[in-house]
């Protein structure tokens, strides 16, 4: 079946640098995507979403880019902070949300 | 607002025992969901309720049953727990099924021995 996947399972960045987390999806019928942040021992927390009729959406310190041609989604975090350390999931909606396996982001001092 | 509240937070069961995981939301959301998360993995949908009075199977429904008690509450029941059901269970809700993000609870950590 089609599923959401991530390019890298772990990512380490220096505090203050920008982070880019990537996600590949294979279902061309997906029309809504969400990025979630999950801290240890907590439930996933909504970060930002984007519909398939958009290429880019910005929030506070975060930007999501959608490339439908190559079925690729990315999350950019500007000026990464220690509090950004967490697992990040992309999720695509086909009926209900389907989650990828996540990327562990570690922010180095 | 409390958002999505799950009880209990932790539970240990013996194989064959039954239990019900409770979930309640106070956001007047129409849709509710149950996911499980195994170590190092993403979340997999067990059951969902698009609106009060309806329930449907998700990706991994075997061994579970659900009840949408009212608009606020959506419970998950394990009739005969198995070690393979050891997992973290998350309940979520959304205003509608499409084009709305899901709000998650803090999870129930279940161990079946």
What does this structure look like?
The complex is a heterodimer of chains A (109) and B (113). The model of chain A has no long low-confidence stretch (mean pLDDT 91). Chain A is built from no helices and 11 strands. Chain A has 109 residues and is an all-beta fold. Chain A has strands spanning 4-6, 10-14, 19-25, 32-38, 45-51, 56-58, 62-67, 72-77, 86-94, 96-99, 103-108. In chain A, a hairpin with a 6-residue loop joins strand 4 and strand 5 (45-51). In chain B, strand 9 (87-94) and strand 10 form a beta hairpin. Helices cover 0% and strands 50% of the residues of chain B. Chain B has strands spanning 4-7, 10-13, 19-25, 31-37, 43-49, 56-57, 64-68, 74-78, 87-94, 103-104, 108-112.
Task: Explain briefly what this protein structure is.
The complex is a heterodimer of chains A (109) and B (113). With 109 residues, chain A is mainly β. Chain A has no helices and eleven strands.
Quaternary structure classification:
heterodimer
Largest interface: A-B, 21 and 24 residues
Low-confidence stretches of chain A: none
Would you tell me the overall average pLDDT of chain B? 95
Residue share in helices of chain B? Answer: under 10%
Topology pattern of chain A, helix = H, strand = E: EEEEEEEEEEE
The tally of helices of chain A reads 0
Write the element-wise H/E pattern of chain B from the N-terminal end onward: EEEEEEEEEEE
Number of separate strands of chain B: 11
Largest sheet of chain A: 6 strands, mixed
Features:
heterodimer, A: 109 residues, mainly beta, 6-stranded mixed β-sheet, 5-stranded antiparallel β-sheet, B: 113 residues, 7-stranded mixed β-sheet, 4-stranded antiparallel β-sheet, globular
């Amino acid at each position: 079946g089609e599923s959401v996947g991530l390019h890298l399972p772990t990512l380490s960045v220096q505090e203050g640098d920008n982070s880019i987390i990537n996600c590949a999806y294979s279902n061309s019928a997906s029309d809504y995507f969400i990025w979630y942040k999950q801290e240890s021992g907590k439930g996933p927390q909504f970060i930002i979403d984007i519909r398939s009729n958009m290429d880019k959406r910005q929030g506070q310190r975060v930007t999501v880019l959608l490339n439908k041609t190559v079925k690729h989604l990315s999350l950019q975090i500007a000026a990464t902070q220690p509090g950004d350390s967490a697992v990040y999931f992309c999720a695509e909606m086909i009926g209900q949300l389907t989650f990828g396996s996540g990327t562990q982001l570690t922010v180095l001092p | 607002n409390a958002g999505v509240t799950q009880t209990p937070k932790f539970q240990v069961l013996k194989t064959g025992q039954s239990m019900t995981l409770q979930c309640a939301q106070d956001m007047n959301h129409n849709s509710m969901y149950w996911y499980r998360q195994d170590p190092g993995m993403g979340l997999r949908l067990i059951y969902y309720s698009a609106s009060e009075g309806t329930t449907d199977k998700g990706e991994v429904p075997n061994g579970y049953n659900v009840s949408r008690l009212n608009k606020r509450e959506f419970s998950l029941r394990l009739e005969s727990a198995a070690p393979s059901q050891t997992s973290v269970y998350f309940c979520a809700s959304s205003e509608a099924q499409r084009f709305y993000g899901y709000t998650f609870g803090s999870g129930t950590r279940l161990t079946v021995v």
